[in-house]
Amino acid sequence: MDGFLSLVPLIVVLVLLFRRVHMIPAALVGAILAMIIGGISLTTANATLMETMPKILGMVVPVINSAVAFAVFNAGGYTSALKLMNRGVGGRSELLAVSIVLLQSLATYMSGIGGGTAVVLAPLAFAACGAIPELIAGMSIAAAVAFTTSPASLESSVFSEISGVAIGDYVNQMRPYWLLFTVIAMVIAYLGAKKRGSLFTSDAPSDVTDPTEDTAQLVKTTIPAAFLLFSVLVGPKINEALDMPLFGPLVYSLGTILLIWVCTSENLNKTFESLVDGSSYILTRLFGVGYFLSFIYIIEKIGAFDTISSMAEVAPHWLMIPAGVLAGFLIGVPAGAYVGTILALILPVVMNLGFSPLAMGFVTMGVGLGSQMSFVNITMQALSSGFQIPIEKVVRGNTPYIVGCVTLLLGISLVMA
Fold first, then answer.
1. By the 8 A CB rule, do 14 and 345 touch?
2. I need a surface site. Which of 152, 199, 210, 398 has the fewest CB within 10 A?
3. DSSP, res 406
4. CA angle at 28 for the pair 374 and 342, rounded to the nearest 5°
5. DSSP codes, 335-350
6. CA nearest 309: which of 331, 330, 334, 327?
7. What are the beta bridge partners of residue 130?
8. For residue 163, what pLDDT is reported?
9. % of the chain at pLDDT higher than 90
10. For residues 367-380, b (16+ Cβ closer than 10 Å) or e, as one string?
11. Neighbour-count burial of 273, counting CB atoms closer than 10 A to its CB (0-12 exposed, 13-18 middle, 19+ buried)
């Protein structure tokens, strides 16, 4: 009976999230129930909040990376990159579709924000190729695997806070799987565009295919994005080899801003304003997740996660990791508005089960893929708006490809973790 009672607050939180109640009041209701059931004092609850908030808001590197990427967005760096890609492939829709998915993955990886990337790229992709279902699915998959493994994302911050693994270590461990699923997403987009050609649902602008823009200027405008990408992907290896932070956050953040000023039409003041404004997205979400996690930690104090772990331990050991990945995916589908929120619920459970950091990373990726079949997910809403189709059509088009990727992820988790 005690074990069952400990689960009641967690079940209430899940039900409220599935009913699209905001994550903070949903978790607050659960925390109040836990305080009543477990006799937890207000002093303890307050101490939990004061301990959790500084840890969450102290995750500085993701905030810096997200802010710098936003400044690159505002300066037109990613738009220019897509236009150059279009010219490089001679306007062939299937190769342009591949380029769009690659850019979606890279830009999301740099910024940590799948929805913000899709807001910029989806209208351009629609202008260039039309509403090709496989292209949309490829962009969704690329976004999911990028923001769940990005050094700049909220999801990586939550993973680090719960697991105790440094963000850099987590990112390095998951990078091969990010690249693998990005390639799969590109193949899906290629085959779909090859089969269907351009597929427009209405008149679309020709921003991507405008031949009058100077190629040299497009290359110049893309330089800040290329520098940021190089810093994020290759910088840590150079820092390790030199034993100094040559490509640390200070250098690459200010270096990217300087390149934006030199290489684009943005003036210096506006560029720094974009940097500051770009921090607001992830800071506000870190603040919200800080409250959410505090309430979840209160529920944890009455043994909810220990109860789940003890029940799961009766399952065959070799099935536990795939089961955790599948559970993450299934929760992500209805409640995937904020993937970081779902991770705060499921990662403590799998951690109690003795999952390795790699196995927990697979669970994280599973939640991200589930969110790309969610009607409340920001990336899905951005794709729906950008491609000018109902979100129901986005979900329906994504489903077979997302399910296929999750099936592959289950197989990988069974073998590798």
1. yes
2. 210
3. H
4. 30
5. HTT-HHHHHHHHHHHH
6. 327
7. 199
8. 94
9. 48
10. bbbbbbbbbebbbb
11. middle
Report the chain's mean pLDDT, rounded to a whole number: 88
Q: Is the pLDDT of residue 208 over 80?
A: no
Residue ranges making up the domain that contains 204: 2-416
How many structural domains compose the chain? 1
CA distance 153 to 62: 6
pLDDT above 60 (res 262): yes
**Residue 129 · residue 208 · CB < 8 Å:** no
Residue 169: other Cβ atoms inside 10 A: 12
Q: Where are the alpha helices (DSSP H) in 234-267?
A: 235-242, 249-263
20-41 average pLDDT score: 92
Give the Cα separation of 106 and 296 in Å (integer).
Answer: 32
Which of 65, 75, 136 is closest to 100 using CA atoms?
136
Report the 10 Å Cβ neighbour count for 43.
8
* Tens digit of each residue's pLDDT (9 = 90 or more) over 350-385: 998 889 999 999 999 999 999 999 887 888 988 998
**How many distinct helices (H) and strands (E) make up the chain?**
20, 0
- Beta carbons within 8 Å of 297's beta carbon, 6+ residues apart: 48, 52
- How much is the pLDDT for 212? 64
pTM: 0.81
Structure tokens at 209: 């295919």
Tokens of 34: 């836990």
Instruction: Compute the Cα dihedral for 264, 268, 274, 280 and give only its sign.
Output: positive
pLDDT digits (tens, 9 = 90+) for 121-143: 888 888 888 899 999 999 999 99
Chain-centroid distance, C-alpha 215:
32
